[in-house]
Amino acid sequence: MDEKNKTVFVTGFGPFGDHKVNDSWQAVNQLHNSNLESKLGIVLRSTQIQVIYKSAATTVQDIWKNHNPDLVIHVGVHNQDSVMLEKQARKSGYCQEDVSGCVIENNTCPIDGGDLLSTEIDLDDLIEKVKRDDIKIQQSTNAGNYLCEFTYYMSLCHNKARALFVHIPPSTSLVPLKTKVEVLEDIIRTLCAQLQ
Fold this sequence. Notes:
Elements: E1 6-13, H1 23-30, H2 36-40, E2 42-49, H3 53-66, E3 71-77, E4 83-86, E5 88-90, E6 116-118, H4 123-130, E7 137-140, H5 147-158, E8 163-168, H6 177-195
Parallel strand pairs: 1-2, 1-3, 3-8, 4-7
Antiparallel strand pairs: 4-8, 5-6
Helix pairs in contact: 1-6, 3-5
């Protein structure tokens, strides 16, 4: 590992729709209680992304340009009781309004990296290393074409080898928050080992 500690930046989302409490942000916030920084020798940063296209674009640009992260993990919620590791993100098709009632201009991400971008992180290997008996962890090729996928696309434009999107169950799920946090910890631990 380099002399300087690796910087891991993890994001969660603010409230939207029926998700008055967004477990993505709740889980990300809990990561700071897990001593990951001292255990892994990393700098752990986090921020909440508002479910607003323009705000999300600004936040993602800021993360990559001003924090120089070695790894960025975006976390969002989906309406399933499993964890989904997202493989790819689309540039366009963002026609659903954000919480402010707006859509992104031309329904298209403002930075260009091609029509479809995929992470270079080996998701099959990652799933094998973090699998658990109490929750299914699987790969997905459809991040939802909303703020989650929009955010992921922007990060993939910056670095496909160092960006990942993780969908976790919502607060209404039977999966406890503690389990969601543990899965995120395992993902961070595994990916940090690969950064060495």
